[in-house]
Amino acid sequence: MKEIKFKLAGQSYTACVEEEKGAGALKVTLNGQTYNVEIDTAEHKIPVASPVAGAPKAAQKGGPANVNSELPGTVTKVVAQAGQHVKRGDVLLVIESMKMANDIVSEVDGTVQRVAVSEGANVNQGDLLVEMVADFVAAEAPALAPKPAPAPAAAPKAAPAPAAAPVAAGANVVTAPLPGTVTKITVKVGDAVKAGDQVLLMEAMKMENSITSESNGTVKAILVEAGAQVQSGQALVELA
Questions:
Q1: Are residues 178 and 117 in the same domain?
Q2: How many domains does the structure of the chain reveal?
Q3: Residue 74 and residue 17 share a domain
Q4: What is the pLDDT tens value at each position of the chain, 240 positions in all?
Q5: Domain check: are 55 and 77 in the same one?
Q6: Measured between alpha carbons, how far is 4 from 26 in angstroms, rounded to an integer?
């Protein structure tokens, strides 16, 4: 067996070459990935090698997974720190925008390289918030293209969303500041709330937004339910 060490694009590789019994056959192991190759003695060319069944998958380092701001606002809390390992969905920082607290979360498992903003900073849409590198991922061996699946049957048309409950003119209501999806109702009819208290959570622009009351009162009616799609300005909770 012959061992060869080399570098390619700054990355180190180790290759072990073992001649198989029989003319023109080699077994090549490159960084843990084993290939059976045949040598074309006439042309002195090595054809594309195919992975040996059962050989381990090589590991590849994940690429950058930087987090940018989805909307303008003010950074009110920084949770992540340089060098911290986070999982997909972990909160990195909080941005206040349009009177809502928006949790900025990681979309991958990875390591924080640098937090580019500090508490109190004003950011614009597209500004860099956190530099991250995704975790190592397994490189999949090339596979034969699957046969095309039969075309799926046409999905039934979705039922129209129920009409919003009517609200009396001049009523004290909490409205949606932007379009999105209601993910959780955090109050119930009869609850007393103060200005700034959370009444529900809403997902918009890939962020979870805390919807709060702007005045003191008692919950008279909840006009939406979890999972409902709402539009900007739509009444969500009526207060007495």
A1: no
A2: 3
A3: no
A4: 677 776 665 666 677 777 766 556 777 776 667 777 676 555 444 444 444 444 444 444 556 789 998 889 999 999 999 999 999 899 999 999 877 888 999 988 999 999 999 999 999 988 999 999 988 654 555 556 666 777 766 666 655 545 555 666 667 899 988 889 999 999 999 999 999 899 999 888 778 888 999 899 999 999 999 999 999 889 999 998
A5: no
A6: 14
Residues 54 and 74 in one domain: no
Angle at 96 between CA 91 and CA 102, to 5 degrees: 35
Handedness of CA 164, 189, 203, 213 (dihedral sign): positive
Listed in sequence order, the residues at least 6 apart from 143 whose beta carbon sits closer than 8 Å to its beta carbon are none
Q: Give CA–CA dist 237/175, Å, rounded.
A: 7
Single-letter code of the amino acid located at 5: K
User: How far is the C-alpha of 17 from the C-alpha of 228, rounded, in Å?
Assistant: 61
Q: Which domain holds residue 123?
A: 67-136
Task: Name 26's bridge partners.
Answer: 19, 37
The CATH code of the domain that includes 79 is 2.40.50.100
Q: Are 16 and 29 in contact (CB under 8 A)?
A: yes
